[in-house]
Amino acid sequence: MSNGPTLILLHGQTGTGEAERMVGQARLAAAGGSARAAREGGFGQVVLATDDPEAAGDDAYSVDIDEAGVAFSLRERVLGLVGKSGVEGVAVMGAGALPLLTGEDFGAGAEGLGRGGDVAVTNNFYSSDLTAWSPGEALARVGPFERDNVLARRLRDEAGLEVLVLPRSVRTAFDLDTPAELAVLALSEATPSAIREALPPEGSLPLRPYRALMPLLCDPDAEILVAGRVASATWGHLERETACRVRVVSEERGLASAPEGHAPRSLTGRLLEELGIERFAGELASLADGVVLDTRVLLAHAGSRARREDRFQSDLLVPEKVADPRIRDLTAALAAAEVPVLVGGHSLLSGGLMALADQAWLENDRRLGLAPPAG
Description:
Layout: E1 6-11, H1 18-40, E2 45-50, E3 62-65, H2 74-85, E4 90-94, H3 103-113, E5 119-122, E6 130-134, H4 151-159, E7 162-165, H5 170-173, H6 179-187, H7 193-198, H8 207-213, E8 223-228, H9 232-241, E9 245-250, H10 267-275, H11 277-287, E10 290-294, H12 295-301, H13 308-315, H14 325-335, E11 341-344, H15 351-367
Parallel strand pairs: 1-2, 1-4, 2-3, 5-7, 8-9, 8-10, 10-11
Antiparallel strand pairs: 4-6, 5-6
Helix pairs in contact: 1-3, 6-15, 9-15, 10-11, 10-12, 11-14
């Protein structure tokens, strides 16, 4: 066994709905790419922890199946794998998290762990997609947690580790979490071939509004509205890397890692309550030439317990496949808006938009004869 750190990929509870399966298949393909990149970057072993006995199929990682009949605890599951690894350095990420990371990126994480002492490395301190730490046993000093997003902060606050944050880029910000990211991956030429082969047919994805919004990013006379969990780093990236004007409504940052009892409140959600669905969609369209909307903030504000399949079908802009009547009506109104509207979650508003901007400029330069043809 290599002395390099161990990468644990978490893949479970992907769901059985049509859109859920679509995302799950792409995330599993991404796991293989992440495993190979991690090994290239100096990781000694990669383990896929999963509840799916059929997840085996890639020799880049070993598979560790959840124990049947045992109540699942993320903390205990990871602690068990840390004990099995027999190495000091450990990293945890979702199977589809950060699918654009390269071996060089993983190498930077391994190098951070190699500094010695109690240290953690993450891509995002407040809502981590990737968390690596050493020594592995430090996790035993952290109390129970339900999501790995909180690990970097909890390792600092409860285990006393120093936390290093990887430089912000498209690769360290893009998380494959919803169908919206599948649309971005289908359009981006930076998508690894293994993931591209696992994407659904283009007709299954809402590519038309994405294609319509992309040229706006290169147009100094255009304006886009981005509403939801917009990080300052993303806003800064859009200010630097797009030509259009950007109208931002940033709210409920850290929603996924908020403390228990947090009651989400949203200005955009209040606007939806006051105006109703049809007028709300119309007002959004009147504010800009294109809209990128984080609907999870709206749903959290409303206290919605919508099924993940409904959220995903809404991201695909297929209202007829949404069971929840209010989400169905909202999806229909946004799909029919007079300007392109992209619907998704946090990752669409961070790495997703960054990747779209990169692809938009590449296509813009080709139109002007400043870049070679595709392929």
